[in-house]
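User: Hey, quick favor. My workstation is busy. Could you predict this chain's structure for me?
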Amino acid sequence: MRIRLTVKCKMQGAFKKVLVTGGAGFIGSHLVDKLMTKNYEVTVFDNLSSGRLKNLEKWLHNKNFTFIEGDLKNPKSVEKAIQKTDLVFHFAANPEVKAGETDPRVHFEENLLATFNLLEAARKNRSAQAIVFASTSTVYGEATVFPTPEDYGPSIPISTYGASKQGAEALMSAYAYTFDMHTLILRFANIVGPRATIGVVLDFIRKLRENSSQLEVLGDGTQNKSYLYIDDCVEAIFYTVNRFLKKNERVDIYNVGSADYVSVKRIAQLVAEEMDIPPPKLIFTGGVDGGRGWKGDVKTMHLSIDKLLKLGWKPKLNSEEAVRMTVKKLFQ
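Assistant: No problem, here it is.
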């Protein structure tokens, strides 16, 4: 289905030129694939600290594609990249939650400061009429309502990653209302699929390749979280963007995830099954703070996606199916 990015009122016509920060990363590169197949003019801005140019190799010589190796911490580079851009997908970030336990500055600089620099560049340039921001379920912290809706509060992050994303959301909202901008905030559950570089599925695969008879599981294994396959994620992005631009609102927020969840212990079983190996002996580390895998690990995450479902979108795969598909794709 062709989704035309059209807008009303102050937003001018159909979007043609799109900037994707973090476009060489996991979610960003899959989004770029979709944009390119729909014939948009796409510029990727990425410092390649976690993204890979290989993820974009099929577009590198396409006339509608431009790659800029640059850092969002450098304001001048951002200002240059955003020129003549109609729509920005801000997907650049340091996604490693555990990193905040040993180096909290990385989340401040790579997530919060980087977002501020992007917003400043958009404010000065004025060509980008809307920004789509990749946020996270971790902004909710330890929610007490499940499934957790977008208007749940107060949001009390328990990791520096979640805090940096919550701060970036606040900046997005403030700039939208102060400087006549439009921002769409997408709070992602755990997204899985090819090109991912971190996460429990990859961790289990790596460990089982080294020793298929036993598997170390961080925490007590009872952590329950929603998982969404990358193809479903990209479709959800397009659904929300299309709706947001038609509504012409200053700020809107959507949870993006699956309708269910799966435990870490069950993920270990699923990975072993898809790797076609006998069930390994599971060795639980016990974790910290009541069975968490690490400081800042949210034990239960189950987002409400009712708002997104009302747009007509629904995931093709549930959490278990998303995990299975990820392992299958990695072993093709």
